[in-house]
Amino acid sequence: MEVTGIGQRIKAERTRQGLDRTRLAEVAGVDANQLWKIEDGRVPNPRAATVAKIAAALGCPAAVLMGEEAPTPLTPLQKRALGLLENIPQRRIGEWFAFAGRLMGEDMEAAEDFLMGMTRAAS
Questions:
Q1: What is the pTM of this model?
Q2: How many Cβ atoms from other residues are within 10 Å of residue 31's Cβ?
Q3: Where are the domains of the chain?
Q4: What is the pLDDT along the chain (123 residues), one digit of tens a residue?
Q5: Which of 28, 31, 67, 118 could be cross-linked to 57 through a Cys-Cys bond (beta carbons 3.0 to 4.6 Å apart)?
Q6: Whether 64 contacts 71, CB under 8 Å
Q7: Other Cβ atoms within 10 Å of 11 Cβ, number
């Protein structure tokens, strides 16, 4: 099946990353019902601010969700970071995303240490 609409692309990226809809909505700061409507195609042209929030939460450019460029495969560190996300307390999610946004240029060892520290702090 060809992914054509923005809702389908959001859902495809979300499932590719192993996130459920509720968690994505929580992290993006959007209403879960609104996200469901977007993914279901009931809101075919969501607001740019909403798309930007969802894109930031997914760690991908908004252009990918809008179909203007192809998604890039997740790196091993990005996959690990997504797995650790489940163990990070809600109060530290913003800090995690601020760091995750810089992962592409960061030292792999420093990034791993940071993520492990956040996981330990969550325990």
A1: 0.59
A2: 11
A3: 6-65, 76-122
A4: 455 789 999 999 898 888 889 989 988 889 999 999 999 999 989 998 899 889 888 888 888 888 887 766 666 766 676 666 666 666 666 666 666 655 545 555 666 666 666 555 544
A5: 28
A6: yes
A7: 20
